[in-house]
Amino acid sequence: VRTPYQLHHGDLDVVVPLSSDQRYRTQLESAGTPHELHVYQGYDHNQVASDATVLERVRAWYARFGLF
């Protein structure tokens, strides 16, 4: 993956283990791909998707890379 990538993960997520995103972050780092991993304390899989902070970070990320 060479396209900038942003990850959002709740520490209580039992659908996708946090370790999966941590491993993916390592791959992005190795490839030199711009990326961010945000971990949300006390959030499960579904809570992350509707959190206002997540949505603000996504919008800012897209704007940073010229998608807005």
Structure, explained:
By secondary structure, the protein is α+β, with helices and mostly antiparallel strands. The chain has three helices and two strands; from the N terminus they run βαβαα. It has a two-stranded parallel ribbon with strand order 1-2. It starts with a strand and ends with a helix.
Overall spatial form:
flat
Largest sheet: 2 strands, parallel
Proportion of residues in extended strands = 15-25%
* Global structural class: alpha+beta
Unreliable stretches, pLDDT < 50, 5 or more residues? Answer: none
Number of strands: 2
Supply the number of helical segments. Answer: 3
- Biggest sheet: strands side by side, in what order? 1-2
State the distance separating the first and last CA atoms.
21 Å
Q: What's the average pLDDT? A: 94
Radius of gyration (Å)? 12 Å
- Helix content percent band: 40-55%
Order of helices and strands: EHEHH
Q: What are the main properties of this structure?
A:
two-stranded parallel ribbon, single chain, alpha+beta, 68 residues
How would you concisely characterize the structure shown here?
This protein has helices spanning 18-31, 45-49, 52-64; strands at 5-10, 35-40. It is of the alpha+beta class and 68 residues long. Strand 1, helix 1 (18-31) and strand 2 form a beta-alpha-beta unit.
Helix and strand topology:
Blueprint: E1 5-10, H1 18-31, E2 35-40, H2 45-49, H3 52-64
